[in-house]
Sequence to fold (286 residues):
Amino acid sequence: MTSLPARAARHCHAALNPLHSALYFSPDLTSAFARHDVDARGAYFAARAAPLGAVGAGVVTATFYNFQYAHVARHIPDLWDSVSPEQALETRLSAADATLRRLLGEEAIASKELAEAAELALRAAEAGTRAARPLYAANAGLPVPREPHLALWHAATQLREHRGDGHLAALVTAGLGPVDALVSHTASSRGMAEDWVRASRGWNQEEWQAGQERLRARGLLDGADELTPAGTELRKTLEEETDRLDLAPYEGLGAAGVARLTELAGALTATAVAAGAFPAGIFGTR
Fold:
């Protein structure tokens, strides 16, 4: 039985996660990997998969879940000939440093509030569970950076992957494959824009429409490609199950710590978003 207020862990994750995910929309990441002759899409795969080692396309597809296998295989494993996993880890941390300094500013980077947020986030991340969580476990095995803003990014990354690994278990249990999960999330108006999702995940229009048809057959999507009441309830249940599977880090931190981390991370995220951390037009529209 958790001692946390309802959805406190989810709210904390929502406040902190943008500080992690901003890296994957950052020109700093693209330019850093370009020096290794890795293109923008390859940079995403290299940076996120590097903690797993020089794995193949099958492992990346399995752990990332919602990418089309052939799309992944255009980059993995060939990119490891250009940049080793060890080099990729160094490169992503260098890009995270540049990104956070650009978005937050040097005053925030040096602030006691950021250092406090890093300490709290690391405590939460250390309380995660590794079993059946490959991306979290791989990141949890990496050394903690010494600089507070990079330690914060490192902890946010672990917490993102911890929640993500649990979410994939919930999706599998619900019978939502990669495309079906993306279609239902986009239809909820909480996901990213359809065109952006399809392009970035490698699904064509026919594959997307097939996912829509599967959801209609289950009574989860209507003829206007909107979630039915049953579809809305399924998405709600998925998030609640993800919350349940993601409690350990936040229970380890405690209610007061979670509330404080939410406050601190929320302020930092607001600064990052205001500085243009994410491109316009990718969220909440189809």
The mean pLDDT is 96. The chain has 16 helices and no strands. Residues 148-173 form the longest helix (26 residues).
